[in-house]
Amino acid sequence: QVQLVESGGGLVQAGGSLRLSCAASRIAVNINAMGWYRQAPGKQRELVAGITSGGMTNYADSVKGRFTISRDGPKNTVYLQMNSLKPDDTGVYYCKAERFGYWGQGTQVTVPS
User: Which of 18, 30, 82, 94 could be 73's S-S partner, Cβ–Cβ 3.0 to 4.6 Å?
Assistant: First the structure.
C-alpha cells in the first residue's frame, strides 16, 4: 500500500543537471529513512544517496559533491539533485523506503558520452 513514484528523469548532456522527485503515499518521508538507488546497464543496483529518519545523509563516493538528497515533509517528497552529470551516471534511478523495503518504479536518467 506504500506508493513511491519517481519522476524527473530524462536525457541530459554531460555536465548538466537534473532533479529527481520521489512522491510518497502512505509513508512519511520525514520520519523514515529513504534512499536513492540506481541500476546502470549491465550492473547491480547500488545506493547512491540516503537520508536517515533524523536527516543524516550519505552518498556513494562516485556522486559525493555532485548529488544532494533532500526531503520536503509537507510535500512528502524526496529529491535527488544531480549536478555535473557524467555518462557513468546513466541508469534507472529508484526511490526506496528503507525500513519497509518498498521501491518505486524507477525513472530513467541518460547521460550520453
Answer: 30
pLDDT, the chain, mean: 97
Distance CA 19, CA 80 (A): 6
DSSP state of 31: S
Instruction: Map residue 87 onto helix, strand or coil.
Output: helix
What length is written for the chain? 113
In this structure, the strands spanning 91-97 and 34-39 are antiparallel
> pLDDT tens digit string along 16-61?
999 999 999 999 999 999 999 999 989 999 999 999 999 999 999 9
Burial class (CB in 10 A: 0-12, 13-18, 19+), 5: middle
Cα–Cα dist 36/22, whole Å: 9
CA of residue 55 relative to chain centroid, distance: 15
- Label residue 1 exposed, middle or buried (CB < 10 Å: 0-12, 13-18, 19+): exposed
